[in-house]
Amino acid sequence: MNLANNLSISRILMIPLFVAALLYNKVHLALAIFTVAVLTDAADGFIARKFDQKTRFGAMIDPIADKLLIVTAFICLMFVREIPPHLRLPPYVFIVVISRDAIILLGSVMIILVKGIIDVKPSVLGKATTFFQMITVIAILLSFEYSRIVWTVMLIFTLASGAGYIVRGTQLLNDNSRKR
Length: 180
Hints:
The chain has six helices and no strands. The chain has 180 residues and is mainly alpha-helical. The model has no long low-confidence stretch (mean pLDDT 91).
């Protein structure tokens, strides 16, 4: 297990700490934990590329860690009492974020079952979406006055990248040259 993969795993291990901090209304502690988790996301990718630590396991665990962190954060942010009501995420934001990830997951499973291949390569738009989703969580935890603008931008990226992944998945499924 290399350093880049250990950082991805550490991001997953931070999730219960983040949830506990929010459950005990320790928003500043939750912000610190989430920020460290975001930094591990940046660091693991940099280390994997810079020090040639790219692995198949890393290519799979990194996006899983991101999704677990983000989905957990969005679920929690709907219910945290310490966040002013006007800054809390409305249900439709949660629905869009979770639906996109569910569609990507189900599409990936279909591609594996039908084609016998796994093609774990995030798009540039997908990476930007993850960035804006993480920034949205940080903005809300900071009670940033313009959080609504941040999450609106995030929603646009989430919808656009979701559509892009649907197109890409459909092309993979319809490509007769890539069969089992």
